[in-house]
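On clarity, I found the account of how folds are encoded harder to follow than it need be. What matters is that the chain and its backbone geometry are given together, residue for residue. The format is easy to grasp once an entry is in front of the reader. For illustration, here is how one protein appears when written out as sequence plus structure tokens.
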Amino acid sequence: MSQRVDSSARPPPRGIVAPHNDALVVTATVADYDVERIFIDNGSFVNILFKSTLDQMKVEEFEFEPISTPLYGFAGHVIPPLGQIVLPLSLGRDSRWVTKMITFTVVDTPSSYNGILGRPVLKDFRAVASTYNQKLKFHVGKEEEVLCRDQKVA
């Protein structure tokens, strides 16, 4: 017979103010630019970069590959993508990081985030996201790496 454990009795992870429902927001390197305020969304089937982010990165010289699949916003409205672009994405810190070529869908719409990393990135990096712990875990070689984010940014 197993006992039920009351998870509310556990103290919050170190540095986390509980209770919270904060999004997991990280900084990552995209095409050699440190991009802050990237939302980790394990419900998204695409990775998104906003045109405003690419403009700040001076990535206008890249051409987008056409894409005809519309995206649907929170309220069900259609967000037409400008296209797709493949850029290197690096996760990690110091000398422990992993880089993979990632396909991003580019949209021209306002957002409080600079990008959204969805299920494709989580799969490619074999990453596990924990909003409760405000951490993204993945492997760098045989070592486990953890990206933590300041809860205030979320």
